[in-house]
Amino acid sequence: MDHGKLGMQPSPPAPPQQAAPGAWVMGTPVAPYAHQAAGWVTVEHIPSPSSTNNNRTGNPYVATFPVPNNSSASGNPYVNVSPVPTKSPKATILTLLGRCGKKLEDTTKKAGGAAGNFWHHLKTSPNVTDAALARLAQGTKVFAEGGNDKVFQQTFGIFPGEQLKKAYACYLSTSAGPVIGILYLSTARIAFCSDNPFCRIISSGQQEWAYYKVVVPLDQLTAVNPSANPRNPSDKYIQIVTVGNHEFWFMGFISYEKALKNLSEALLIL
Prior knowledge:
By secondary structure, this protein is of the alpha+beta class. InterPro entries: GEM-like, GRAM, PH-like_dom_sf.
């Protein structure tokens, strides 16, 4: 694999789909500098799915899984759909971020370390409040289910003898903007699942809500490349390349160096 590939210009991203306000629009994987994040707005309502087709992206490593229409649905146990409370915690978090966000940013610029990495992770999102909510929800999910191993197994299933090694909070770069989620590294594969459902337009013209998943078996992995934004070196990315030259870019890591090290080692031991 030619690691000089990072310098090549990516193909122009597909136009973002049109969706009603209150929807995250599902895009296709692209390099970070090809984002069209202006089309990404917050979720306030999750309708029931209208289809169960799992992949219309043309990329064999991308799978989209419809949102179950109740909290006990067996189609995807990773999700717990519940009614929106009368008083949303989003307003509280927004107020807190408004009060301390600038101070936190100034402080972490000086202190660096984990606090600075976490703040950078939140700012990677087009909406800091939504990113904070996603991290709180994911932390609650992991605690309730008994650890990342259980969440991984519920989300992707498990192969005989497969063990989860690491889990990293990050974003998948897509044409519709960065998608917040968790990147898992097991002894058999690399897998990503979005924290939130996304909207896409199906063939009938209706909207379908689904979770964005990427699954790459380790024996299909051909390259793990580090990269950074030349205009802002603190924006660091990890590009993975598969058999067939499918590319995925991950960004906004809380633990970038550890993620790069472990993903690179997974490639070397093949």
